[in-house]
UniProtKB/TrEMBL annotation:
UniProt similarity note: Belongs to the DNA polymerase type-Y family.
Coiled coil: 50-77
UmuC domain ranges (all copies): 103-283
Record bears the keyword rRNA-binding: no
Lineage of the species this protein comes from: Eukaryota, Viridiplantae, Chlorophyta, core chlorophytes, Chlorophyceae
Protein name: DNA polymerase kappa
One family name in Pfam for this protein: IMS_HHH
């Protein structure tokens, strides 16, 4: 009939695409994942990106086949030993379980987009994303209903949502609002760990004990104070360790909170059906490898831990098993000595459609420098070494570094040095550009003492 969609062909190659863009973010529950895959396929099927992605999938499938061959050769006695290894690993992991701590992960809701909506209320009623045609930093919740999300190229976002408004990022403004949130976080945990401009981990155990209140009550106080201070909403996860708190903070977004009861039965029930990709640190390739053995959830990890022990490394087994039991870090890391940082480097990078116009690439360096400078300022750090990362149109990667005589953190200096290194590579056609600062140290205050707190990896 006229007006109806044409029948979908039996052969649908786009369905084979595994893409991060179909991983749900808050506000994307009802998104048609097949539609996103189809749009990406049509936009990139003749590109170098698509060919490279196909090659990666082929390599992953070949690796799965090799691992299955390895598993098939495992003898009955060997498998008994792997079962014993798993039992020992579980006993060891359980000794590291702490149920008495109160951790809260605070995640600002669509932070960059929300700041833009705060400054321009007309954006609240339209699908909007912060970023460019090359890369989206974040999208508001209206845009997410169309499948638009962070880390997605803007041209893909435009195909999913033609009316999408793209707003140029203002990192100076985001840093200002981020500092306001941190004033609130320090009330509850002076040693809170920053996860960037828009998230933080707070150990609220001491605060709860002193004030005689629960983690849920603290989370509500945090959300109310952040709203009062910034006019922005945030979401909180409350649990007995950092990993669980982070996962929980995504459960009732936006402007909500989720409490996970600190008892083993509740924790195991919570993680049982959790997709393995939800475990912080599990990426696309690891997910695909596990899926190749029918391991899709944390519950599957526990059931098939002997298989993981047989075909993966002991380190991988330990990490997956511990995480799937809901066990993770429950204390702040050891504080670095004065003048030292736990973080070794800090970086940002953007992927985009291949570009070779020199002025465009230099403008992108300026934007990256401002983004990186804002992230460094949020942690009160500066760096000695500037590294530029370039991914060419043929997917080869180059890095160029320069170590300075004195540390820097301002966007002008970072941009000037990175631009100088980039100019030496011209002419060049790029699809990724990144800047990294290393050799980090705390920025000293007027008295010459380090200020702020800086934690990271």
């Amino acid at each position: 009939m006229e007006g109806e969609n044409p029948p979908i062909q039996d052969i649908q190659p786009w369905k084979a695409i595994d893409t991060v863009y179909t991983n749900e973010k808050a506000g994307m529950d009802s998104v048609d994942k097949d539609l996103i895959k189809r749009v990406i396929y049509e936009a990139s099927k003749d590109s170098n990106f698509f060919k490279k992605d196909e090659e990666k999938r082929k390599q992953t499938n070949e690796r799965i086949a090799r691992l299955k061959e390895k598993l098939a050769k495992v003898t009955e006695d060997e498998m008994k030993r792997y079962h014993a290894t798993v039992r020992d690993s579980i006993r060891s992991a359980e000794r590291e379980r702490h149920l008495s701590r109160i951790w809260i992960h605070v995640d600002m809701d669509a932070f960059f987009a929300s700041v833009e909506e705060l400054d321009d209320p007309s954006l609240k009623s339209v699908p909007m994303a912060v970023g460019s045609i090359g890369m989206i930093s974040t999208a508001n919740y209206i845009a997410r209903r169309f499948g638009v999300r962070s880390a997605m190229p803007g041209f893909i976002g435009k195909q999913l949502c033609p009316q999408l408004a793209l707003v140029k990022p203002n990192f100076r403004r985001y840093k200002e609002k981020s500092e306001e949130t941190k004033e609130v976080f320090r009330i509850f945990d002076p040693d809170f760990e920053s996860g960037g401009l828009d998230e933080a981990y707070l150990d609220c155990t001491a605060f709860a004990s002193v004030h005689g209140i629960s983690g849920e009550e603290i989370a509500e106080q945090i959300r109310n104070l952040v709203m009062e201070k910034t006019k922005l909403t945030c979401s909180c996860g409350v649990a007995c360790n950092k990993m669980l708190a982070k996962i929980c903070s995504d459960k009732n977004k936006p402007n909500g909170q989720f409490f996970l009861s600190p008892n083993i039965a509740a924790i195991k029930a919570f993680v049982k059906d959790l997709p393995v990709r939800k475990i912080p640190g599990v990426g696309c390739v690891t997910e695909q490898l596990l899926n190749g053995f029918g391991i899709n959830t944390c519950g599957d990890v526990i059931k098939n831990a002997h298989v993981i022990a047989a075909v993966f490394t002991p380190l991988t087994l330990s990490f997956l098993l511990t995480s799937s039991l809901g066990i993770s870090t429950a204390f702040h890391g050891k504080k670095p000595a004065p003048g030292e940082l736990s973080r070794k480097g800090i970086s940002c990078e953007h992927t985009f459609t291949a570009k070779e116009d020199e002025n465009t690439l230099l403008q992108m360096v300026g934007s990256l420098a401002h983004e990186l400078s804002a992230a460094m300022a949020s942690e009160s750090i500066e760096g000695l070494t500037v590294t530029v990362k370039l991914k060419l149109s043929d997917f080869t990667v180059r890095t160029r570094s320069l170590t300075l005589l004195s540390p820097i953190s301002d966007p002008e200096s970072i941009s000037r040095i990175a631009s100088k290194m980039l100019r030496k590579e011209f002419p060049v056609k790029l699809r990724l550009l990144g800047i990294r600062m290393s050799g980090l140290s705390p920025i000293a205050n007027a008295n010459g003492k380090p200020k702020g707190n800086s934690k990271g990896s």
